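Subject: for your reference before the review

Hello V.,

The reviewers asked for a structural picture of the protein, and I figured it would be easier to keep everything in one thread rather than splitting it across files. Below is the amino acid sequence we used in the manuscript, unchanged from the supplementary table.
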Amino acid sequence: MYTKVMNGEQETAVRTQAKHDGITHISTGVAIVRDNKILMVYRAVGDFMGGTYELPGGGVDEGEKITDGAIREVREETGLTVSKVLGIFPGFDYSTDRKPKVRQVNFLVTVGPGDVILDPQEHDEFTWVDASNIDSLVMSAKTRHGANDALQQVKRFNLAE
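And here is what came back from the structure prediction:
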């Protein structure tokens, strides 16, 4: 279910539910929209989930609002600046070697002009996808589901920039 931007009450509800569910960390996935496509970044082979595509995003810092974490992660991972947070859509739970229970909250955003600039230690490729080419990318089932959810929202709202 797509919702509008997260307000303080919704953030508290997300965090309270996560704590109740035993979640130890909150992360973000960010579907960046440009020309009715979303940006997917390719995880460097030596990194966690290396060799697969994912939405840009990452961990929310202690004391940081979830939306602010998503905006920061876009800048850090892509060099792009969020111009508008359009909404939030369902994420998923996962675990890593260092983080036993993580809940990812997904965002749909637009960005200002500029080129994608990646940190090659984390991501070494990127591509813009739509429904016609997303199935050709290697990614986890959870990521594919989230990316397809994002593309449905792009199509629904005709979010061409």
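For the response letter, the relevant points are probably these. The mean pLDDT is 91. The chain is about 25% helix and 30% strand.

Happy to draft the paragraph if you're swamped.

O.
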